[in-house]
Design a protein that fits this description.
Number of helices: 4
CATH superfamily: NAD(P)-binding Rossmann-like Domain
CATH architecture: 3-Layer(aba) Sandwich
Strand order of the largest sheet: 3-4-5
CATH topology: Rossmann fold
Radius of gyration: 18 Å
Strand content: 5-15%
Length: 163
């Protein structure tokens, strides 16, 4: 919000919102349009697709200095139900996954000791998540038509402290 030398820069805040929130909405709206043209995948439910966005556990307990990131990810989580309601009549579901810290290109090279510090507050397992664990949840979402309009935490019970 503010720094020692004045207000936080609005340009950097906008960049984070543009990348995370506007980018997610843009892809979602285009995907929804294309999905609406799909033939239903089954006769019973007439489902035409599912949009799975990525939020973050920071959406629920952002840390000091992460205001723009937290706001952008909270907005993605907040879009789930409204997007599901908007698209439900077309047979399209909408959800988000809110992961904690995962082993990705961004975390590559982090020493094990530092990764242990980052994940110390997880209930179990106390480690970075694996991409295949995210993928398993995405597959479960695709396969279960009753999952809709919500943001699912994928975080090993981890809660972030303020800093």
């Amino acid at each position: 919000t503010i720094k020692k030398d004045g207000p936080h820069g609005l340009d950097s805040f906008r960049k984070s919102i543009d990348l995370n929130l506007i980018g997610t909405f843009n892809i979602s709206r285009i995907a929804a349009w294309h999905m609406s043209k799909n033939d239903p995948v089954d006769d019973e439910a007439e489902e035409r697709g599912v949009i799975i966005n990525t939020a973050s556990i920071a959406a629920f307990e952002g840390q000091i200095g992460q205001l723009a990131y937290t706001a952008s990810k909270a907005a993605i989580a907040g879009m789930c139900l409204t997007m599901a309601r908007d698209l439900g009549s077309l047979g399209i579901r909408a959800l988000a996954i809110a992961p904690s810290l995962f082993a990705t290109g961004l975390t590559e090279g982090i020493p094990d000791e530092f990764a242990s510090v980052l994940t110390k507050d997880a209930a179990f397992p106390k480690r970075l998540g694996k991409p295949e664990e995210y993928a398993k949840l995405a597959v479960a979402i695709v396969e279960n038509p009753m999952l809709n309009g919500q943001c699912l935490r994928l975080d090993a019970g981890q809660r972030f402290a303020p800093k």
